[in-house]
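Inverse folding, one chain.
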C-alpha cells in the first residue's frame, strides 16, 4: 500500500417505502408468499403497460433534495436490456443519460474528520426478482420469486471521492440516516432495503488520473462493505507492487470465505443497449410540484445535530447519538420540551432508555416521553432522589404506569422536610452517643458514618443534601434556614 492511495465510489440502491410497485398496483410488503405479489405488468406479459407510481417519484425527489441535488424538470426512463432468470421482461426499467436528479453532496464524519462527498446522480429504477437456490430432499434446483420485480428503488451514485473503507462505511451510515429521516426508505439492509456496490482503485499518491477500478456487487451489510473494500485494496496493492496491472472487472463478495470472486471482466461486460423506454412518456415535473415536495423535507440529521448542540447546549456526542434515528431525536425533544431540561433528558435517554430499549429488543421506547418527563420533574422537585428514580423507571418500563403511580405503588418518597429531618437526625445522634463524642474530639471521619445511619433509618429516602446540612447543623451548631422544605 506504500505510495498508493485508494479511491472509492459507491452505487447504492434503496427500496422506496411505497405501498405499491413502481409501474403496477402490486403490493411491496416484505416476506409475502413467493409469487403472490405479481401481475401481468411486473411479470412482463406481452401487451401489459407500465403506469408510473407518483409516490415513488415524490420520495425519490425528496431524497435528491435532501442530498442537495438538482431535480431535473425533465428526465427519461430507459430500458436496460439483459437476460437473467429473475428478470421476466428481459429488461429493467431504469434511467440512464437523463436521471431524475443530478449533482449533490453529503457530509461524512470519519475518524474525527468531516468531509463533503459529491453525489453524481439519483435515479429511479425497478428491482428484479429473486432466485432461491435449494439443495434438499427435493434435489438441487433453483426457484424464482417474482415478488420483488418492479419494486421501486432509487440508485444513488457517488463521485469517486472516498478514501478509505471506513469512510465508505461512514457515507453509507450518513445516507441511511437521511433515508430514514425523509421516510423515503427503511434503509434496512437485512431485508434488502439497502444494498451497495463498491468501486475501488488505487493510484500513486499525488497522481490525479484515476487508476483502473474493480466493482464489487451487492453488498448487504455495513461490515461486508468495509471488509470487501479492505480485501480488494490489499489485493490491488499486491498486484501493483508486483508490476501487474489491475483488470477492470466485476467481482462478487463471498462473505463466508471472506474474499471476492470474479463475475466478469470488462471485455465480457454487459452491453445493456440502453434506449428510451417506449412504453413511458418522458417524466416532466413542474417547478411548483418540486417546490412542494421540497417544502416537506424534515429537518435533516446534520442540522438537527448542530441545533441540539447550539440551542439546547448538548455535548456533540449526545447530539450525535440522539440524532442517530429520527424517532429517537423526536422522543428526546419531547422530553426536553416538557421538562425544560435538555441535558438531564439526554442523560436519561442515553442511559436508562436506550439500555432498556435494547434489552427489550423492540424499537419502541419503554416509557412514553410524557411519562419520562414527569419522572424527571419528580426528581427535580426533590420528591424522589435520582437513585430512586432509576428503580421507578424500571417499574414504569415494566408496567407502563405513570411516574406518580409507580412512586406511590412503590411507597417511595423522599424526606425533604427540614423539621422531619431534624427529628430523624436527632434520633440517630441519641442512638450513637459515642460517635457523637468522638466526632466532637476531632474524628471528622465519623460524619460519613452518621450519614450512613440516617440513610439506613430512612431506608434511603432521605434527601442526601438535606440530611447532610441538618447533620452538620446538629454536630457543629451551624443553623441552616428552613428553605429546603
Ligand atoms: P461504470 O461505467 O463502471 O459503471 P461509472 O463511471 O458509471 O463506472 O461509475 C460507477 C461508480 O464507480 C461511481 O460511484 C464512481 O464514483 C466509481 N468510479 C468510477 N471510476 C472509478 C475509479 N477509477 N476508482 C474508483 N471508483 C470509480
Ligand atoms: Mg456500475
Ligand atoms: Zn404487478
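Residues assigned per position:
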Amino acid at each position: 500500500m506504500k505510495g498508493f492511495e485508494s479511491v472509492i465510489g459507491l452505487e447504492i440502491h434503496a427500496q422506496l417505502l411505497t405501498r405499491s410497485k413502481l409501474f403496477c398496483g402490486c403490493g411491496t410488503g416484505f416476506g409475502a408468499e413467493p409469487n403472490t405479489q405479481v401481475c401481468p405488468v411486473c411479470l412482463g406479459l406481452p401487451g401489459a403497460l407500465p403506469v408510473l407510481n407518483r409516490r415513488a417519484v415524490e420520495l425519490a425527489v425528496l431524497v435528491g433534495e435532501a442530498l442537495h441535488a438538482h431535480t431535473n424538470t425533465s428526465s427519461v426512463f430507459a430500458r436496460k436490456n439483459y437476460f437473467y432468470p429473475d428478470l421476466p421482461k428481459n429488461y429493467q426499467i431504469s434511467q440512464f443519460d437523463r436521471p431524475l436528479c443530478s449533482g449533490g453532496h453529503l457530509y461524512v464524519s470519519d475518524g474525527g474528520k468531516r468531509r463533503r462527498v459529491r453525489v453524481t446522480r439519483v435515479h429511479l429504477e425497478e428491482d428484479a426478482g429473486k432466485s432461491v437456490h435449494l439443495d434438499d430432499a427435493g434435489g438441487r434446483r433453483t426457484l424464482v420469486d417474482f415478488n420483488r420485480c418492479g419494486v421501486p428503488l432509487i440508485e444513488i451514485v457517488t463521485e469517486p471521492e472516498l478514501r478509505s473503507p471506513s469512510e465508505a462505511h461512514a457515507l453509507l451510515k450518513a445516507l441511511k440516516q437521511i433515508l430514514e429521516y425523509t421516510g423515503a426508505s427503511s434503509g434496512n439492509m437485512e431485508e434488502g432495503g439497502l444494498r451497495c456496490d463498491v468501486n475501488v482503485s488505487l493510484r500513486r499518491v499525488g497522481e490525479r488520473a484515476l487508476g483502473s477500478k474493480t466493482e464489487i456487487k451487492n453488498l448487504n451489510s455495513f461490515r461486508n462493505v468495509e471488509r470487501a473494500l479492505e480485501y480488494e485494496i490489499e489485493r490491488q496493492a499486491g498486484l501493483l507492487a508486483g508490476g501487474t496491472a489491475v483488470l477492470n472487472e466485476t467481482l462478487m463478495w463471498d462473505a463466508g470465505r471472506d474474499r471476492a470472486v470474479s463475475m466478469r471482466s470488462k471485455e465480457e461486460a454487459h452491453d445493456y443497449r440502453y434506449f428510451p423506454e417506449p412504453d413511458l412518456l418522458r417524466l416532466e415535473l413542474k417547478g411548483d410540484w418540486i417546490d412542494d415536495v421540497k417544502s416537506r423535507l424534515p429537518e435533516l440529521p446534520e442540522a438537527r445535530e448542530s441545533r441540539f448542540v447550539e440551542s439546547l447546549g448538548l455535548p456533540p456526542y449526545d447530539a450525535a447519538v440522539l440524532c442517530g434515528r429520527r424517532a429517537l431525536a423526536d422522543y428526546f425533544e419531547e422530553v426536553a420540551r416538557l421538562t425544560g431540561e435538555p441535558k438531564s433528558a439526554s442523560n436519561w435517554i442515553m442511559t436508562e432508555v436506550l439500555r432498556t430499549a435494547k434489552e427489550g429488543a423492540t424499537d419502541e421506547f419503554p416509557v412514553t416521553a410524557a411519562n419520562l418527563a414527569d419522572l424527571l420533574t419528580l426528581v427535580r422537585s426533590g420528591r424522589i432522589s435520582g437513585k430512586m428514580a432509576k428503580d421507578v423507571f424500571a417499574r414504569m418500563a415494566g408496567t407502563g404506569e405513570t411516574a406518580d403511580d409507580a412512586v406511590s405503588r412503590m411507597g417511595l418518597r423522599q424526606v425533604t422536610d427540614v423539621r422531619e429531618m431534624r427529628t430523624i437526625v436527632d434520633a440517630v445522634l441519641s442512638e450513637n452517643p459515642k460517635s457523637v463524642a468522638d466526632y466532637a474530639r476531632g474524628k471528622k471521619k465519623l460524619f460519613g458514618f452518621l450519614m450512613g445511619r440516617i440513610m439506613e433509618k430512612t431506608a434511603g429516602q432521605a434527601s442526601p443534601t438535606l440530611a447532610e446540612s441538618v447533620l452538620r447543623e446538629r454536630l457543629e451548631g451551624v443553623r441552616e434556614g428552613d428553605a429546603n422544605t
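Residues 480-485 have pLDDT under 50 and may be disordered. The radius of gyration is 31 Å.
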